[in-house]
Design brief:
Length: about 140
């Protein structure tokens, strides 16, 4: 069993896609083991995406991620990290496979509806960034 962190980003919440995203995860065998809705401050978004601090899109990304409510989820399942990434599709919706969340709903590489951890170490950091032990099943 593996755990990963997913976020319905502000554009996904604005487009009423919370149920669609969680539904896809649940239908594909992932279990929600922690969930909360909140608005990130700019500082919280910067801390979460600290690994991207040197990238040219860092300012825009953290502004976008703090532009409205998000849904934070810890998910558990067999191969959960890859499963979530497969269901999301490529970061750039133009390159995302048909039928994936981003191909179906994302507007751009930045407004791409959903986030998922990319490796076990990142998943551990990202789950711990948003959830404490009492908030996880
Ligand atoms: P995410 O999976 O949340 O991880 C980092 C985010 O940075 C990514 O999704 C995109 O939303 C964003 N991102 C990645 N590359 C670019 C880019 N070239 N321009 C703008 N945003 C980007």
């Amino acid at each position: 069993m593996e755990r990963t962190l997913s976020i319905v980003k502000p554009d996904g919440v604005r487009k009423n896609l919370i149920g669609d995203v969680i539904g896809r995860f649940e239908k594909n065998g992932l279990k929600v083991v922690g969930v909360k809705m909140t608005s990130l401050t700019r500082q919280q978004a910067e801390g979460f995406y600290a690994v991207h601090r040197a990238r040219p899109f860092f300012g825009s990304l953290t502004e976008f991620m703090s532009s409205g409510p998000v849904v934070l989820m810890a998910l558990e399942g067999d191969g959960a990290i890859k499963k979530v990434r497969d269901l999301m599709g490529a970061t750039d919706p133009k390159k995302a496979a048909p039928g994936t969340i981003r191909a179906d709903h994302a507007d751009s590489i930045e407004s791409n509806v959903v986030h998922g951890s990319d490796a076990p170490e990142t998943a551990a950091f990202e789950i711990g960034y948003f959830f404490n032990a009492l908030e996880l099943l």
